[in-house]
Amino acid sequence: MPAEIPARVLTLAGSSVQVFADAPTACLAAAGRIAEAVKASLAARGRAVLGLATGATPEPVYARLVALHREGALSFARVSTYNLDEYYPIQPLDPLSYRSYMHWHLFQHVDLAPDHAHVLDGTVPEAFAAEHAAQFDRWIAADGGLDLQLLGIGRNGHIGFNEPSDLSVDDARKLPTRLVPLHPITRTDAAREFGGEDKVIPRALTMGVAPILAARSILVLAFGPRKAEVVAEALRGPVTAEVPASLLQTVPGKVTWLLDEAAAHQLVYDSNLR
Ligand code: F6R
Fold this sequence. Notes:
With 274 residues, this protein is an alpha/beta fold. The chain has one domain: 3-Layer(aba) Sandwich (Rossmann fold), CATH 3.40.50. 32% of the residues lie in helices and 18% in strands. The protein has helices at residues 23-45, 59-70, 98-105, 129-142, 169-173, 184-194, 209-214, 228-236, and strands at residues 8-12, 15-20, 48-52, 79-83, 85-88, 117-118, 148-151, 178-181, 203-206, 218-222, 255-260. The strands form two sheets. An eight-stranded mixed beta sheet has the order 1-2-11-10-7-3-4-6, with helices on both faces. Helix 1 (23-45) crosses helix 2 (59-70). The radius of gyration is 18 Å and the shape is globular. The two termini are 17 Å apart. The structure holds fructose -6-phosphate (F6R). Fructose -6-phosphate binds next to loops.
């Protein structure tokens, strides 16, 4: 049996939920799905468009994609990528920037053209941030939309840096790419990287909910006990902008959650378990 077969597969709120023995196995599976999506899009239309995430969760996914590339099993030559977010303001060469993260974990290791690797620009003058964000959405559309969006989830339910809000579900689903303040929980969780909560850059440019939901397929990764509560809220709770990941329930059939046992712990296994 290949190592990346899930231990359990459920259907919850229109999403496929695949529970793996551990996070490394789930990451191998995620990289396999991404490689398959690239190959399918290349076969169908000669190019592929990926939405990418940063953070601790997907690091092993990028390591596996790089390994596949080195083995000659995956080329990024006809791939475009769009990252979910970037701190604002920040220099691209700042080691804390998501541009640096992508460089270290993926971009420098593969044959992705520099002008096809799109990360929101943390140096754009603030007066032009809205126009830059709108342009990012237009680039995605002009590229034919995202074939696959990779997501992590914040402890507060954020996807990208679309933070909890009191918007109506309809309004939240329409949110475009934009400049946002970070939620206190997000800042707490970033404190270690920045060397203290007060040092966390308090704003970011984030891909909006609308372009995320418009992706043709969405892969969400969540690992460890700290994510268990919010995973259960996103999949079992009501659809609400208070838990942005619950908005994924509004695009049934497109979303696959890849979890480890710890993150799946609060999902009640019932009759649709196999
Ligand atoms: C990162 C992003 C965030 C993270 C989330 C989880 O590009 O958009 O939504 O996916 O904060 O972060 P980790 O993986 O560090 O727990």
